[in-house]
Amino acid sequence: MSRALPQTEPASDLPPRVTIYEVGPRDGLQNESSSVPTPVKAEFVRRLVAAGLETVETTSFVSPRWVPQLADAAELLADLDEVGRGPLRPVLVPNERGLDRALEAGVGAVAIFGSATETFAQKNLGRSRAESVQMFAPVVRRAQEAGLWVRAYVSMCFGDPWEGPVPVDQVADACAELMDLGCDQLSVGDTIGTGTTGHVEALLAALDRRGVGVDRIGVHFHDTYGQALANTLTALRAGVTVVDASTGGLGGCPYAKSATGNLATEDLVWMLDGAGVESGVDLDALVETSAWMAQQLGKASPSRVVKALSGG
Amino acid sequence: MSRALPQTEPASDLPPRVTIYEVGPRDGLQNESSSVPTPVKAEFVRRLVAAGLETVETTSFVSPRWVPQLADAAELLADLDEVGRGPLRPVLVPNERGLDRALEAGVGAVAIFGSATETFAQKNLGRSRAESVQMFAPVVRRAQEAGLWVRAYVSMCFGDPWEGPVPVDQVADACAELMDLGCDQLSVGDTIGTGTTGHVEALLAALDRRGVGVDRIGVHFHDTYGQALANTLTALRAGVTVVDASTGGLGGCPYAKSATGNLATEDLVWMLDGAGVESGVDLDALVETSAWMAQQLGKASPSRVVKALSGG
Question: What residues does the Pyruvate carboxyltransferase domain cover (chains A, B) (predicted)?
Answer without folding.
Answer: 18-287
